[in-house]
Amino acid sequence: MEKQKEVTNSSASYNNRELSWLSFNKRVLEEAADANNPLLERLRFISIFSSNLDEFFMVRVAGLKDQVKAGFNRPDDKSNLTPKQQLAAIATFNHSLVEQQYDLYKQVQDELEVQHICLFQMTNLSAETLETLEQYFDEQIYPILTPMAIDAYRAFPMLLNKSLNLAIQLEDEYEQEQHQKKTAIVQVPALLDRFIQIDEKHHYVLLEDLIRHFIYKLFKGYRVISSSTFRITRNADMNIHEDSAHDLLKEIEKELKKRKFGAAVRLEMNAMEQDPKIISFLLHELEIHEKDLYIVDGPLDLTCLNDFYDQVKHDYEHLIYETFIPQPAQDIHEDETVYEAVRKRDLFLHHPYESFEPISDLMREAADDPEVLAIKQTLYRVSGDSPIIASLKRAAENGKQVTVLVELKARFDEANNVEWAKQLEIAGCHVIYGMISLKTHSKITLIVRKQANRIERVVHLGTGNYNDQTAKFYTDMSYLTTKRKYGIDATNFFNYLSGYTEKPDFHHLSMAPFDIRNDLIHHIDQEIKFHEQFKNGRIIAKMNSLTDKPLIKKFYEASQAGVQVDLIVRGICCLRPGIPGVSENIRVLSIVGRFLEHSRVYLFHHNGEINIFLSSADLMTRNMIKRVELMFPIYENRIKERIYDILDLMLRDSLKARQQANDGTYSYVRSDEELNSQLKLFEQAMNLFA
């Protein structure tokens, strides 16, 4: 027993959180290399890789750099790497990944040229095309540009996070001795199209290339020696002192302004344009270490490929995924409203295979139903033109009591949520912002309705956000019920969030930061006991990320007892499977495909009396102790069977699943049965309504 404890505490039994995330982003990049994906979708995966990486640098790398600056040198509790060691390992791994990304970009670009989608260099254009582009530059671009000289009187400008810029080296044409070169910065306008179409075909040049070609027009009397495109990524994590914030809305808005100008954490430059003097100058001015300099062989900021995808996809439908229309919910009959259906039976929806519209419809029905007295809902991320928000506003205007918890601290959605909070308050909703030092990440709605002189409550619980747009490509699960005790739990939960009361004792719900970790540990312990008696122990857990050490150690304990543990973890996984004597009964799969696997499901075999829980929470330390999360059981056998079948299908995936080895690396699962679980679920949903 002591030896087992020693092994499960060893750093060799864990993956580092940051390196595991980079491994996940590598799996995203592998989708760009997969020739089974349509060509434009492969281009889009390159864009997703870049977007993911931006956030990683703005938050995770920035956080590690802050620790180093503060002199914090304590190793992390799993891999035993100090912040400096983690930054060094990140740089080594990520430079390799970025090199692979640009190799793939070139490969996909070559294949696009075969389809007559071409990106041209300015030097390869005809005189006639150049003349047309010069006119476009003079009329549409030149008036927007602002050259910023840098000298003793004009300091290096404060450049926006993720902005694209040009660093220009100049010589005075009239000076006899050209020893003193001058430097200027020109920001590439963010509101102009990055890809400029140059003819009736899908032929393009990049905006920054066009500006560089005619940049001399901004500096009359000077000769342009070099022009280098560069991009800065800044620390964008927010530091909100909630205890001293009298108005959280204003505090969030103030921090959002700071985010644009945080400390630089990464500098990207183009290999073809690099000027050693400019590189040294930028590294010095931005206080960037050389390991955070990325010189790439291609355009900077490949997140732009997502806009390019939207720009060309309508003319190349054979190069994108087959159109998928989410199907009607299996549990709702054609002649029923959502409310009529949920009064008869509990409802289960699997998005995006089943439409999110029933949730929007339920909110719309509730807003206009004269018998509905109150609506309460948590909002973490919503869409830009949200039907949910529209229904909440209309419900308040119709005199119903509407309480909405808007999580202002939802990372990178703070500005949207501040705006929604203001609009909801103007409409008459009672808006609350959660609890000090905790993010409210739970997904729950309570509708209170008067029915034949009695109160009836409809509860929706989900694994994903109330966002009708992301529900089209995030896999999530929804559960709706009118069961009395669920209604009581929901009422007590909202009262706990909005008022002054001790944490409720729930009938069915489990809540973080108090109970979810302990409840999961209890269920794992129970599974171990069942296995000791019946030798058929099994746990299946599906989540986005797994980092929580107490739960990882408990999974190790289950494996050592002989319980078969199947984990489907899309992203970060600090647990290492297959270590003899520690985790040899654990299998870890990651599925990265067309849809973003987002649902959280926890299943315990319990000798055939299968227990299934859905949750808003991943098994991350932050979710267990720093967020308000909910986990809830599924009791109906028909729903449990559906969820089990979904998990079983995913565990048999042999086309989009990667399996983790005991050294933390991932490789594709291959078997005689070629199975894409997402495609199969798509086909099953279509066949039900064929």
Give the helix/strand layout.
Blueprint (H helix, E strand, L loop, with lengths): L1 H7 L8 H17 L5 H31 L13 H32 L2 E3 L7 H15 L5 E4 L13 E9 L9 E6 L7 E3 L4 E5 H7 L8 E13 L13 H12 L4 E7 L5 H11 L6 E4 L8 H8 L25 H7 L2 E5 L5 H12 L3 E8 L7 H11 L3 E6 L7 H14 L2 E3 L6 E2 L3 E8 L2 E9 L11 E8 L2 H15 L11 E3 L3 H19 L3 E6 L5 H12 L3 E6 L16 E6 L4 E2 L2 E5 L6 E5 L5 H5 L1 E8 L2 H15 L5 E4 L5 E3 L8 H12 L2
Parallel strand pairs: 1-6, 8-9, 11-12, 12-13, 14-25, 17-22, 19-20, 20-21
Antiparallel strand pairs: 2-4, 3-4, 3-7, 5-6, 7-8, 10-17, 11-15, 15-16, 16-17, 18-25, 19-23, 21-26, 23-24, 24-25, 26-27
Helix pairs in contact: 2-3, 2-4, 3-4, 11-12, 12-13, 15-16, 18-19
Enzyme class: transferase
Cofactor: Mg(2+)
Organism: Oceanobacillus jeddahense
Largest sheet: 10 strands, mixed
Shape: globular
Rg, please? 27 Å
How far is the N terminus from the C terminus?
57 Å
